[in-house]
Write a structure and sequence with these properties.
This protein is an alpha+beta fold. Among the domains are: 39 residues; 42 residues, no CATH class; 95 residues, conserved putative lor/sdh protein from methanococcus maripaludis s2 fold (Beta Barrel), CATH 2.40.420; 49 residues, no CATH class. 25% of the residues lie in helices and 39% in strands. The strands form five sheets. Strands 6-15-18-17-16-19 form a six-stranded antiparallel barrel. It is rod-shaped. It starts with a helix and ends in a 19-residue tail after the last helix.
Length: 418
């Protein structure tokens, strides 16, 4: 055997030995890996089961495993260490955060001006009403061209009346005056005044010595004629109403405020009204009365606003969009979409650290410009989940993560003006 052949055989032998050793090592590792996979984990073996539950109804707990009475599935164990993890909130991976589209918002402390938006309609101011009556018994000789709905000025004539009682009383007065007895003259003059004769007409009779049996009834104040009860030729008696005139210097704007917001309405509160007839223009007034009875059908409170009407541009019956301005105050606010309302409570999910979210029960107040006032439960600077929080809330329910009830207000709203 030459040297080359011997060298070849030695190399071949060494190659075969290496393959055998490698196969043995690989086989042993596979056996060890399989043994470690099938062997119970010491950590898992030591895990303590608190109770069993149905993932579809996580609030119902069971003392032992078995079939769920709600679904045809096995009950799931709840371990003690999972309970400790639940206290820290819900952990969501960055991949899940991205796929769910989780968006965060910062809890803010800001000055807000709480306002109430409502609709209302204009009506006549029933405190500004004038009644025209007959001063004595007589007859209607003439009615001027007036009708209900006409707008008249103060002093505008309405009707001419013939009053026989005044004629007799004036003749008696002129006769007594001719006697020169001042006491009797004064008594007769007073009788004319008690019959309702205006002082200007009495002065004219005394100055001219002529009896004036006709009276022109005029409007005591300007406004709209609501009722006109006098017609030519009719007989009138003392105290009979001839016309009813409603002033137009100011109007009543009556609002329908929902009961849920009625507690924020105050007498004297500033109001801003906008009308379709005057786009871009704001009419300002104040709450003059809060009526004591609400509407049983619409569950709204009637609120009355005195609205000045310069130039009589506003007309009764017009509809208005009204904003009642509240006092400016500082408050903790979050976006309205960040709050989950369950009917019994309100929840937000606070970011404890990136990827971990904790439910917090909050006490919310009014909504202002898309933000909710938080009376307690949060502090300024915290981050909360503003979108996809319902998916996180479902995961928290499955894991049994509970929210703590709010305690004392963390940043109470102040009614003081800044």
């Amino acid at each position: 055997m030459n040297a080359n052949t011997r060298t070849f055989l030695i190399a071949l032998t060494m190659l075969a030995a290496g393959i055998a050793i490698g196969w043995t090592v690989a086989s042993q590792r596979a056996v060890d890996h399989a043994a470690s996979a099938t062997a119970p984990s010491p950590a898992k073996a030591e895990r303590k089961v608190l109770y069993w539950y149905d993932p579809m109804v996580p609030t119902q707990k069971f003392d032992k495993p078995g079939k769920s009475p709600f679904m045809d599935m096995e009950l799931t164990p709840r371990y003690a260490d999972e309970g400790e993890q639940a206290k820290g909130g819900v952990a969501v991976s960055p991949q899940a955060v991205q796929s769910l589209g989780v968006r965060l918002a910062t809890v803010e402390k800001m000055n807000i001006n709480e306002s109430i938006d409502a609709v209302g309609s204009l009506g006549l101011n029933e405190r500004d009403i004038s009644i025209v009556q007959a001063r004595a018994n007589g007859f209607v000789e003439k009615v001027y061209a007036r009708a209900p709905g006409d707008v008249i000025a103060a002093g505008a004539p309405l009707a001419d009346l013939l009053l026989p009682e005044w004629v007799a009383a004036q003749r008696e007065f002129l006769a007594v005056k001719g006697l020169g007895d001042e006491a009797l003259t004064a008594a007769s003059r007073q009788r004319l005044g008690l019959l309702g004769m205006p002082a200007s007409l009495l002065a004219q009779v005394e100055r001219t010595g002529q009896v004036q049996g006709n009276q022109t009834v005029t409007a005591p104040a300007g406004g709209v004629i609501v009722e006109l009860m006098v017609r030519a030729g009719m007989t009138v008696s003392q105290g009979m109403s001839l016309a009813r005139i409603n002033g137009l210097g100011s109007l009543w704007l009556e609002l329908a405020v929902p009961e849920a917001q009625a507690g924020a309405v105050r007498t004297g509160q500033a109001a801003q009204a906008r009308f379709v007839a005057y786009p871009g223009e704001v009419f300002k007034g104040r709450v003059s009365a809060i009526l004591p009875e609400s509407n049983r059908e619409s569950r709204t409170l009637r609120v009355r606003i005195d609205l000045p009407n310069p130039g009589q541009r506003l007309k009764a019956g017009m509809f208005a969009q009204v904003a009642l301005q509240g006092p400016s105050m500082q408050a903790i606010v979050v976006p309205s979409e960040a709050v989950i309302r369950t009917g019994k409570r309100a929840l937000v999910y606070v970011v404890d650290e990136p990827g971990r979210y904790r439910p917090v029960e909050v006490d919310v107040g009014a909504e202002v410009d898309g933000k909710l006032v938080v009376r307690s439960g949060l502090v300024a600077g915290q981050q909360v989940v503003a979108s996809s929080q319902f998916l996180i809330d479902s995961e928290a329910s499955l894991r049994g993560v509970l929210a703590n009830a709010p305690t004392a207000p963390t940043a109470p709203a102040s009614g003081k003006r800044p």
